[in-house]
Amino acid sequence: MLIDGKLPTAEQLKSFVDRVHANTAVDDRLLGILQGFPKDASPMAMLSACINGLCGYHPEVLDVNYEKHFEHTSAQLLGKIRTLAAAIYRHSEGLPAIAPCGNAGAADTYTLDFLNMTFGNDVKPEVAEALDLIFLLHADHEQNCSASTCRMVGSSHANLFASCAAAVCALWGPLHGGANVEIMNQLEEINKTGIDPDDFLAGVKAKKYRLFGFGHPIYRNYDPRARILKKAAERVLASLNDANDPLLKVARRLEEVALQDDYFVSRKLYPNVDFYSGIIMRAIGVPTDMFTVMFAVGRMPGWIAQWKEVRDQKGKIYRPRQIYTGPVGGTYA
User: How far is residue 278 from each of residues 53, 186, 251, measured CA to CA in Å?
Assistant: First the structure.
């Protein structure tokens, strides 16, 4: 729907799912690139490098007449990013990569297959459902930093893989895709130091602390995505017998106090989507430094749609105007 701008028919959906599953495997030589990275290298650095590296193994993407192969190359990217993300996790853990199951035709196996490639064990349905929600709710979100980056690069007629690799780099920053990492660091710090959440929020009002996970530049009320993920977090933790997770307790108390305090309510500082996505990913075993990679997997359909829209418009290369605001007149050396 995102990529084509309309809901597919049942036949079109099956064709799409089959294409994605048929393009899940990644050439072993490309996976070998990961061996050149230290295990503690940034997962986002590895992901960007691997997505760019796909160009070498699928040169058809370099054809400027992208319409001829777009369905194929977009399916390649959607199928392979989860394989790459799983392989990056396993490389970081010192584990061998797991091949995808290639269960073509089953639309509900995308997330399950990804989790199996990542952790190599049976996955609870609640876990797969929660991660699927995270992917869905992060698929696209207006002209954010990474979407705009993808469009900017695509406007030069750079290929789809290169443009999405650039979007990965934009997502890397803590002000964008790294936001939920900051939230988890905050919750862990509150839990480790034993500070009462009420006292922490009092410190926020006194400008002593900075509060992550509340407020959003777009939403002027409660982020609707956060409501969905809050319920998903509770289901996942219950299914994993981890409903008493100390970080969830801290998160609940922060939310409870903030929603009753006029300081936060008047400033529209409500929990956002990142507030609960990090808790879910931590519960299912995703390391904090892999959070942004998971975000990239979910955001890939949106980046592809943004890139296609720019190319379909057949406009000029993006070149934002600049307004000179320096001194005027005088003599300069």
Answer: 29, 11, 11
Q: What is the pLDDT of residues 257-275, one digit of tens each?
A: 988 999 998 888 888 888 8
SS3 157: coil
How much is the pTM?
0.89
Residue 140 in 3-state DSSP? coil
Q: What angle do CA 281, 228, 90 make, to 5 degrees?
A: 15
Using 70 as the pLDDT threshold, list the residues of the chain that sit under it. Answer: 102-108, 217, 219-220, 243, 330-333
For residues 75 and 62, give the distance between their C-alpha atoms in angstroms, rounded to a whole number: 16
Domain ranges of the chain: 10-174+289-313, 179-283
Quote the pLDDT of residue 182. Answer: 84
28 a catalytic residue? no
**Choosing from 113, 132, 216, 245, which is the catalytic residue?**
216
Residues 6+ apart with CB under 8 A from 304: 2, 3, 74, 77, 78, 160, 164
Catalytic annotation, pick one of 113, 132, 245, 274? 274
Query: From CA 92, how far away is CA 45, in angstroms rounded?
Result: 12
In the residue annotation, 18 being an active-site residue is answered as no
The highest-level CATH class for domain 179-283 is mainly alpha
Determine whether 203 is exposed, middle or buried from the number of CB atoms within 10 Å of its CB (0-12, 13-18, 19+).
middle
Q: Do domains 10-174+289-313 and 179-283 have the same CATH topology?
A: no
Q: What is the pLDDT of residue 102?
A: 56
pLDDT at 270: 84
Q: Does domain 10-174+289-313 have CATH number 1.10.580.10?
A: yes
